[in-house]
Protein 1
Amino acid sequence: MWPSGGIIDTAMPDYFGLTEYFTKVLHGKSYGGQTDLARYDTYYYQEEAAMIMMEDICKSYHVAKRTGGFKEACRTLFHREYETIRALDHVSFTIEDGEMVGYIGPNGAGKSSTIKILSGILTPEEGTCTVDGKVPWKDRVSYVKDIGVVFGQRTQLWWDVPVIDSYELLKDIYKIPKETYHNHLEELVSLLNLGELLKTPARQLSLGQRMRCEIAASLLHGPKLLFLDEPTIGLDAVSKLAVREFILRQNRDHGTTVILTTHDMQDIEALTHRIILIGKGRVLMDGNLNQIKRGTGSIDETVAELYRSYEIAEVGS
Amino acid sequence: MKKYLSFFRLRFLMNLQYRTAAWAGIATQFVWGGLEIAVFGAFYKTQPEQFPMTFQATVNYIWLQQAFLALFAAWILENEIFESIRDGNIAYEMCRPLHIYPMLFARGLAVRVSRAVLRCFPVLLFAVVLPGPYGVSAPESAEALCLFFITMILGALVTVAFGTLIYVSAFFTISAQGLRLMVTCVMDFFNGAIIPLPFFPDKVRAVMELLPFAAMQNVPLRVYSGDLAGREALRAATLQIFWLFVLAGAGQLLMKRAEQKVRIQGG
């Protein structure tokens, strides 16, 4: 029912400039000599390599299973059954520097697992992945310097102390030079309207205020790459708009590459041109909003329809 | 290094703001110390020569233990850390350029030192003013006082290293409650928190003194009154250093394994 071809099967772009490279090797005597070729190679790598390259990433979890009831509970004391769940099943995609991508899918599709792999805290079983030329889960500590992560459902601020104390700690953790820190902080405070909030302990902030502080915390070190895992969850209309506006500016003014997972389709509509749809651990679609829009249905209806057509919705079809 | 110091600083400052808790703690320590001394006093009255430590040494042990309780008490572990491991908030720390083990160690140390700094002075002052054998006496010698401070630092570090090991093991279990309860009981018994180690039967004591638990408060509290001195004291201090390296090494290794294997809970 849904036209799946066309959208998925996008031709692989020539990211490495490989074609051109081989053309030069085959024809060009002008590039003769190893050193020149090597230089040419690095040149193209730096110029053309994508920000994020994921290829055939697989990750599965063991989940303990039992049916309810006393008898069953006793039985599992001695014998436990596990079920293997494929959270990610050969996931591949490429994201360019400065792109803003919406990563969507129903609950349990594998979005968070992907974010965790990209942020270096989860090691996949199979597949390769490079982000800005580095493998996230190898040498986690040096990799994460250049990324920022916001987990909408978690908090990174210290509960009992003013927000600014958490920021000062981050300054030391990321070894942000004093001047850079003050510049970034100033900018974030004015854009996200944090002013008074900085002196307030995190526990006394409303959800919307806290989320603004969280986002600022993830950007203090000026990361090239920002992962937002449901950044607008539970926010009121005003806060949502503020957060969206800020993300747009961040992308436009600093060229920050942004990957956004969300269930709020208005987020997607407002922020991203490109959408990657994932379901049951597979990439089902990689395209843009116009490609999935049909008729006059609202964006939510469109996406619900899309989920149903791929049979990945968890409730009713 | 600076980032871990910052963790220490923040955790330290945070603890200083809980004033009510500090006052409550101090009151508890007075009552507890007095009670213990009354009980030991009653025993000493019947047959003082039967005891392995002089009454004054025991009283010193008890008051110093109460004053520096926060440095050595087994139960001082941060719920917040267990929580963040259980619900996955630790994910945030893991996407930062820092190593988890030293971070946990710095936080553990900060909690203990900040508590101790807030509470030790009133108790010490009170114990010094108390008359006769019921108050703290002067240290055995200048060397004893020196060794007391050194072994106190080492003892606190060993205690923190052990606590950090418990945090790290929480990465492998869904809930660390059971482990925590069991370990604190064992620790209290074997480290001399309930009864000083010299009061145990000789054969049992010989084994107990080799365990990591004996490398915690047991050493400084006995060094102060000269109950542990000379060669024996040096041996005890060496054991402290040994256990510090073993526990910290084991913790680091376990943390490395945890980072590779463990997944973060929750969506």
Note: Confidence is low (pLDDT under 50) at residues 1-47 of chain A.
Protein 2
Amino acid sequence: MKFLYLWPLALLALVPVIIFMYLLKQKAEKKEVPSLFLWRETYHNIEANTPWEKLKKNWLMILQIILFLIIILALMGPFLLNLGKSTGHVILVIDNSASMNENYEGEKTRLDKAIGEACDYVKGLKNGTGMSVISSSDVATLVVSSSDDKNEVINKIKAIEPTLNAGSAEAGVEMVKTMQSQWPTLLTVCFTDSNVSMKDVPGSIVDVYKQKENVGIEYLSHGESGGNLVILAKVTNYGEKETAKEVTLYGDDQILTSQKVSLPAGESQIVYFDKVNFTGSILRAELNGNDALADDDVCYDVVSENRDIRVLLMTEKNAYIEKVLDLMEGITVIKSNDIASFDSFVTQGFDLYIFDCMMPAPEYFPQTGNVVIFDAPNKDLYQSKGEIDSALVEAESVNITQYVETMDFGAVDITAYYTPDWAAPFLTAEVTDTETDKKERMTVGFYGDYQGQKITVFGFDLHNSELPLKMEFPLLMYNIVNDNVMTGMLQQNVVYTGDGIQVNARADGALPTVTKPDGTPVQLSDYRIVFTGTDQTGVYTVSQTESHLVKDGAEFFVANFPATESFIEMTPDMNTDAETDVKKGASGDLDLKNIIIAVALALLVVEWIAYLRK
Amino acid sequence: MEQAFNSEFYAKLRSLRMSIALSNAAGMSGGRKSKAKGNSVEFSDFREYMLGDDIRRIDWNAYGRFDKLFIKLFMEEKEGLFHVVLDASKSMDFGEKNKAVAAKRLAGAISYIVLENGDRLFLDIMKDGMIENHRGMTGMQAFRKSIEILDRTEFSGAGDFLGSLKRGNFKQHGMSFFISDGYCDNIEEVFKYLRFCHQEVVFLHVLSPEEKDPAYEGTIQMVDCETGSDIRLSMSGSVLRSYKKTFDDFIHNIEGICKKHSVIYIPILSDASVDSLLYGSLSRLATNN
């Protein structure tokens, strides 16, 4: 037999009070007798009897004490575990999402409680019962797959780590659904603080939700105004009592300012920090005091200069370029075929201009922003060397052809160029002079920096080449666009813990490294990858040792506690699904509370009858 | 308290005629045959003349027949000595039908019988280890005095029977009517002492119905009326059963002691009527006669 609560044991201290009150209640009637000669002997006779006889005279008091003990027992929430009952196979789903980090009681978190309940449940299972364990947050993880070794299962359960990921036991239940066909008799027990539908999954939910006082910062954001920052933080009181908190704003770990905020129960407030003079990178807002969940008391933001990259694509129609630009994140592509009206576009100032087989008038040629040209002349910048009917174009080994150096493709109607002195060829074609039969390698594509502008030129129309059909084409285009406009590795700087973040490192450097808030370095396995190891709140540093062409760089992003985990909208006890069995403890089949209350009532009746008869 | 000596008592007493057996009378000359040979008219025996005998008692007829001098012996008649020993401790003043009333009536009736038989009556009132001795009374004129003594007797103090009796006057052979509720540890010593004092003992054991069948309930703090000591008992069926057993053992024990020491034991309940007291209880004395 196990108990849900131990606090009712404190009520045992009241037992002497009952005895004392009983003694007080016993007002003896004074009677004068001729002699105690016989009574004394009677008294000794009773004394000499068994202790049971001695107690008999106070049996109503004993009955009351037993009644009181039974009530204490009932308050302790006793239950019998699944003793002696095999369920075939049991799957334990343990929610280890961020909300499970909230305090349950004492020093125990909801996850600690869930682990404790799960271990108790395992101990109570009949030996030989097959067990699987799934931890569930944003994704489900199979911790134990079909084991009947209780110790192993308990150790694995105890080793389940808390996460800061948004999620619930839902993912675990979904995994159960995919697994359940393996076992004819399956019981699933979900240890969670949020509601989960157990429809079509035989089993029950063990509710480890407990309402506690918690205040959290949902988000921290900033804007610029007159050279200063305007910062706002949304603070929410998730508890049931009105509370006052102080929000302190830090900039790169230095205190900038603080504000007090009063929060009625269940309400949010936006806290504004006006005219904050801060030129650093990391903003951090922090709440004072302790509450049930510490992780949501801190929120980060990154002050970055990153802005949306705007690309102007001047083309009649080029699905290849459009598609490849679509794949790139963080850029906005504006397309036009009206080269005559280019003067109106150029005044808007784009980061990158792509001229596909067209060229604006020389006076409107953009003076800022970088340029990529496909098969269009520009006498001010470069000179044509001649036309090539057809040739096999090969890539040169330069930084924008990294990983595509071995690429070659066929093309027709190619323009060969004299390589300008500010440029370097990246595509060449070998041409044989029919008259002299002399072979010459000619530049059909080059790139370079002309008076602060990066200019990349292709000497052929993409439609007249096999290049778009080559698997290296997107990579080449990415390298070119990246070389032209993308200076950062990160497209976003604020994520929630558990979320992935795209890292686009330069392919001409070393593999990037992400340093977690606790200082753990993680080397990424590729240049372009979604980093998913955001398992801590705080500041992450993404760094890359780059090539000789560009300097080393480091960027920041922050991971905040997911606000959805601070407040459980639907707790298990709100579950109205008749098929879902929600319990407060990991009781097996038999909750003894009602039985004990019935026994207590029966005793009460006995006592009442005895009292009346007396 | 009910009056002990009321008109009903006297009316019943007048019809009471009883002779109490007493094996050896030892008092002064009286109407009771004595083992001693004396000068009464009742012939007892012959013996040979011895020097110094009164020659007037020589039976000359016998001398004629046997040629020897014989002396005629005559039974000497003496009065019987009767002690009425009354326990006047506080414990006797108990019961709705008070034990003291019954005890006084018994003492009064015995006094009447003794005096009416021409015997000598000693009233001994015991309390607090002392004894109130009254000089031997004879003749019916003394009955009134005895009633007065009994009537003014108050029941108080503790009972120390042996202590009291040792202060008493039990020098001559006689009969003692010991009237008490018998609440003492050394009742056997009491009887032994009386027997040692050549007393034939009649124990009139007076108890009240409340003592025989107590009807207490709840928790009772019982206070001993003599000593003031108390005990606390929660009354229940088992406690009352235990008391009843103790009571029965107490009676059987006293009966045994009485038998052992040739004491006539007469149990009396205080709710007994005057009829029952005089003709029922005391008739056992007559029967013994």
Note: Chain B is about 35% helix and 30% strand.
